[in-house]
Recover the amino acids of this structure.
């Protein structure tokens, strides 16, 4: 008997390859996600998002060749229905507000526990916004 295929196809964008690989393994081990592309910069994220069928984009903000904010702004113009979640170390309230303004569906901190990340991603895939409790509680 084979295991069921993952529910959601994801593009993962972060400029740290080892971090991307670790997140990929954790997400795929959950059984809910299949990482269909990994990229290390915002420019490549925009290109891959247009070329690779996906359900969700998980992106960092601090990346070369086009940061996460710029990438999200461009993706909103060309793929307005894409689900986009930020995974960042930045817990600055102004950066969080800017991410929401440019159109992210969710924002998770790298310091959050994995279960919070999974909950956020599932919530976004169900059509709602989801943000780290550490960002919404101050």
């Amino acid at each position: 008997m084979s295991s069921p295929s993952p529910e959601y196809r994801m593009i993962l964008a972060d400029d740290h390859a080892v971090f991307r690989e670790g997140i990929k393994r954790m997400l795929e081990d959950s059984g809910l996600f299949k990482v269909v592309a990994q990229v290390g910069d915002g420019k490549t994220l925009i290109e891959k998002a247009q070329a690779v069928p996906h359900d969700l984009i998980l992106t960092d903000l601090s990346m070369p060749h086009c940061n996460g904010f710029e990438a999200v702004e461009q993706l909103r113009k060309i793929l307005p229905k894409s689900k986009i979640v930020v995974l960042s170390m930045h817990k600055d309230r102004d950066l969080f507000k800017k991410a929401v303004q440019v159109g992210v569906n969710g924002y998770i901190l790298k310091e959050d526990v994995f279960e919070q990340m999974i909950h956020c991603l599932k919530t976004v895939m169900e059509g709602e916004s989801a943000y780290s409790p550490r960002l919404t509680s101050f």
User: Anything to note?
Assistant: The longest strand covers residues 33-39. The beta strands are 8-13, 33-39, 56-59, 83-88, 106-109, 130-131. The first helix runs from residue 17 to 29.
